[in-house]
Each structure stands twice: as structure tokens, then as C-alpha cells.
């Protein structure tokens, strides 16, 4: 595989994947001239261990359906195949093995997730291995600066901030809407909508 690629990493539970995820991924791809973005559904998210997460294969399938039409988007089952909690440090190390050390990685997050990274396993090492792009999300915009300064010089070098269209959409809200019999049209891709109803996921 050729070196010097720029690769985006879009981690998430994707329960289900929605247009908020797709819009930030595409915005980061364009802004940072990424060669590709790998969507990585988490098997067993360390921050969500107490909540009930939908079957991993169903979340994987929805992620494939949602990203299929974008030639720059790919889906990896790397975290689904690994036993135990999904730590990003392990995922990024595995991707470096795969793509080579010259590859530049950009870990894409919403503004809520970037606030949590100080609690992530081996975050200091992770910041040595990849960049983070924090996209603005309603209600959490100012907090990104605090995180950048929390990590000092490394934070300023490694954590980038990108203003993206703000879509007040979350998987939690979508699951709730389905339970209440409300429409989720245009909030998730049509293929995902068809799949989750057919499989009666929520
Ligand atoms: P949940 O409500 O179950 O937590 P979610 O909508 O937050 O779901 P996740 O799979 O937890 O989705 O998020 C994956 C990544 O996408 C995270 O970095 C999160 O911050 C980001 N993200 C999710 N929804 C949006 C959105 N509407 N706008 C921008 N970023 C988002
Ligand atoms: Mg979330």
C-alpha cells in the first residue's frame, strides 16, 4: 500500500448511523484533502458499557449501506473482530501496521466526543500517532478550545477544529423517534431506514 496517504477515521457506535455522521465525515474529507475515510463501528464501546447497544453486525450492515455510494468512504470491522472493549489506541496502532508509518491519520469526532478524549486509554500516545478533527456540534462549540489548551502544545498541533453544518441529530433521538412511531425520513439514508425497519432493530 502506498505511503503518504491521508486517512480519516470515523469511529462511532452507529446505532444507527445518520446523516450527522455522514455530513461531518464528508466535510473533513474535503477540508483536509483525505484520500479516504474509514468508518469503524465499535464492538463494545468503553463509554457505553452499561447501556444496551444494538447487535454489532446490524450496526455494521447499516454503516455499509449508508456509506456505499461515496467512493471515498469505507467500513472496517477491525473493532468487531477484536475481543474486549474497543480502545481507539489499539485501532490506530492496527491501522498504522496496515497503512504504514508515513500515513497521516485524522480521527474525526463531534464536539461532544472530543471533550471525552482526556479519559481515553493512552490518549497521550494516541495524540502522538494521529490528528484529531473536532467538528462543531450544537451546544458544544466553545468547549473545543478548552480541550486544545488542556493538552498544551501537543493539543494545538494535533487537535484541529472544523466548523461543519450543525445538524441537531443523534442516534439516541432516532431510536426514540422510532419507539414513538415518528418519522425518521431524511435523518438517516433511505437504505438504512429500510434496513432497520425490516430487521425491527428498535
Ligand atoms: P448516541 O446518541 O447513541 O450517542 P450519536 O448520534 O452521538 O449516538 P455516535 O455513534 O455516538 O452517534 O457518534 C459517533 C461520532 O459522531 C462521535 O464523534 C459524535 O460526536 C459524532 N456525531 C454524532 N452525531 C453528530 C451530529 N449530529 N453532528 C456532528 N457530529 C456528530
Ligand atoms: Mg454519541
Task: Present the secondary structure layout.
Blueprint: E1 6-12, H1 19-31, E2 36-41, H2 56-67, E3 73-75, H3 88-99, E4 104-110, H4 111-114, H5 123-129, E5 131-135, H6 143-150, H7 152-158, E6 159-162, H8 171-179, H9 190-198
Parallel strand pairs: 1-2, 1-4, 2-3, 4-5, 5-6
Describe the protein.
This protein is α/β, with parallel strands linked by helices and 202 residues long. The chain has a single domain, classed as HUPs (Rossmann fold, 3-Layer(aba) Sandwich), CATH 3.40.50. Helices cover 40% and strands 16% of the residues. It contains 9 helices and 6 strands. It has helices spanning 19-31, 56-67, 88-99, 111-114, 123-129, 143-150, 152-158, 171-179, 190-198, and strands at residues 6-12, 36-41, 73-75, 104-110, 131-135, 159-162. It has a 6-stranded parallel β-sheet with strand order 3-2-1-4-5-6, with helices on both faces. β1 (6-12), α1 and β2 (36-41) form a beta-alpha-beta unit. α6 (143-150) crosses α7 (152-158). The protein is globular. The N and C termini lie far apart (40 Å).
Amino acid at each position: 500500500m502506498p505511503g503518504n496517504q491521508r486517512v480519516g477515521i470515523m469511529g462511532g457506535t452507529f446505532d444507527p448511523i445518520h446523516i450527522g455522521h455522514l455530513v461531518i465525515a464528508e466535510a473533513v474529507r474535503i477540508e483536509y484533502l483525505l484520500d479516504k475515510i474509514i468508518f469503524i463501528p465499535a464492538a463494545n464501546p468503553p463509554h457505553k458499557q452499561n447501556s444496551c447497544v444494538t447487535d454489532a453486525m446490524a450496526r455494521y450492515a447499516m454503516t455499509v449501506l449508508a456509506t456505499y455510494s461515496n467512493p471515498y468512504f469505507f467500513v472496517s470491522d477491525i473493532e468487531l473482530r477484536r475481543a474486549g472493549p474497543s480502545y481507539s489506541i489499539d485501532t490506530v496502532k492496527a491501522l498504522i501496521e496496515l497503512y504504514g508509518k508515513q500515513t497521516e491519520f485524522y480521527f474525526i469526532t463531534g464536539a461532544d466526543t472530543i471533550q471525552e478524549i482526556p479519559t481515553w486509554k493512552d490518549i497521550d500516545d494516541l495524540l502522538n500517532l494521529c490528528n484529531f478533527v473536532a467538528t462543531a456540534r450544537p451546544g458544544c462549540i466553545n468547549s473545543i478550545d478548552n480541550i486544545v489548551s488542556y493538552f498544551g502544545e501537543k493539543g494545538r498541533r494535533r487537535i484541529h477544529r472544523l466548523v461543519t453544518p450543525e445538524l441537531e441529530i443523534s442516534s439516541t433521538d432516532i431510536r426514540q423517534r422510532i419507539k414513538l412511531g415518528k418519522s425518521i425520513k431524511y435523518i438517516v439514508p433511505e437504505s438504512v431506514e429500510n434496513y432497520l425497519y425490516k430487521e425491527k432493530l428498535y
